Amino acid sequence: MRAVLIRDLRLAMRAGGGFGLGLAFFLIVVVLVPFAVGPRADLHQVIAPGILWLGALLACLLSLDRVFALDHEDGSLDLLATAPLPMEALVSLKALAHWLTTGLPLVLAAPFLAVLLNLPIDGYAPLLISLALGTPALSVIGTFGAALTVGVKRGGLLLSLLVLPLYVPTLIFGAEAARRGAEGLGYAMPLAMLAGITCGTIALLPFASAAVVRVNLR
Amino acid sequence: MASLWEYANPRKFIATSDLVLPWVGGLALVCLVVGLVWGFFFTPEDYRQGASVKIIYLHVPAALMAINAWLMMLVASLVWIVRRHHVSALAARAAAPVGAVMTLIALVTGALWGQPIWGTWWVWDPRLTSFLILLLFYLGYIALWAAIENDDTAADLTSVLCLVGSVFALLSRYAVLFWNQGLHQGASLSLDKEENVADVFYLPLLVCIAGFVLLFVALVLLRTQTEIRARRMRVLLARERMG
Amino acid sequence: MLLSAHNLSVSRGGISVLEGLNFTLAPGRALILRGPNGSGKTTLLRTLAGLQPPLRGRVEAAPETRVYAGHADGIKSALTAHENLTFWSAIFGGGDVDAAMAAYELEGLADRPAGALSAGQKRRLGLARLIVAQRSVWLLDEPTVSLDTHATKLFADAVRAHLRCGGAAIMATHIDLGLDEAETFDVAPFKARAAALDSFDEAFL
To answer: What is the value of ipTM here, to two decimals?
Structure first.
């Protein structure tokens, strides 16, 4: 099982693997926002948690279509499906690899980008915790979306259409926790809900993703 | 004994729905005409909201059907997953655009109603937001059906999406409630008599709701027939290509 | 008995292509599928591999005895040839990578990125995966595509070695590999007959 994870991480790091693309996208989104809303630091301060969460979410979305599509194209997915590895484990590992290469760097980069948006000092901890708790859910849900669109040629747009509504609860609770933290309010409640969503999706969604991949391979 | 599953045979379904369809359609028309005319012209104006309250006769039934259509799709998807009746999957497919349009009607009439009462076309109220999210789910579901070439694969994938989507739609509903307590009034209809709208508005509203339910049934039957015939045609074409 | 099919019907896109197939595969035997293009050989192999369910009938085989090689080799061009095989070895439980590379004369290419290999070399790498997988039933779909005469001979030797060790193989190929253990199985007589047009059932046929 470790072999799949290692291979996916290695592929992401090698040339053409797309590692860092999500990070660059995140940076660009955050840099473009002040150009769009004007150079008012007080306004940036208010919208910073929301922008950072939205940027992270969109950056996650960007690399989702690689999760299964490449393995499907070169035939690896067929071979993995007949390998002695449960499909549920495979999709979970794929989601984990996606989080390690996309979600985790975003979490680590968020505090630095928050400086650009003048996030209040109290807001850093909740932002970091909420992103760390929420991005795994984004990867797992995204993997489900990627599994649905494996067989669709150029399914990137369809993938976004399917995944974005599913991201709504995660985004609401995650951004809410970050916003409340930045405003100096208690944020335990949204954080608990976010953790609940993440645990629930990690526990249950791989079964749906695995079923969907098997259907797509038929 | 005749079993309910007999109607899962496409031919039997078409034959039976052909018999039922004129009656359901006719009844839907009668209910809608009676309910809307009664509601629009023979009910008093609200002492606070004036004539604009009358949009309730479109808004509430459409909103109800928007949710019920999704529930029907959920049940049909489950039937497909468990019993593999093709008609069930096609009925879910047929219901989706109808449900999406109902959601759109509820949103548009809501905006038209909200303008004079709240002074704005749109607020990020929990109910409005939930319906907007529901519309996105409908669009995703319809797009997935459209994107997959193989009908059986599409049926399987959309059923799973419908199941997972239902859970996430429910989650979104609670997330949105948590996110923003809203302006929207409480439920227009409930079993608790205290909360209900006054009786003068209530009876024509019930007739309108019955009309919308029947209209939905008629449209779904008709569209399912169309889907069955389209499916049959695709199978025949594919067979011809194979020689 | 390693693998057997009982009254097997297979379908592509919901339409039956082959029906009424019955055969058994004993250890040390190979079955060569013949039939015109589009006759359903790939569909049959995918069904036997468990990638898609049979339309009717059943496939009997012990779990985890089959390995499938299709048109695509499942090779990652960003990894080296050796890394590719090591990955499959880890997935299938530790077959000897170096021996497999030697069987297809790939030793010199071990550290070359798979993307830089020629089509024939890639195919050899894909076939070497079968040795690494250490499974008894090989299901091969056009294994000799883009192989030259020498590589084809290497492949035939690998199959022979596999059969000698009690393995078995089913392959769709038009090339005569000179295998004494092989039986030819023509799928053409099993072509599905079209159902009558005047009635249709739940499956729309």
So the answer is: 0.91
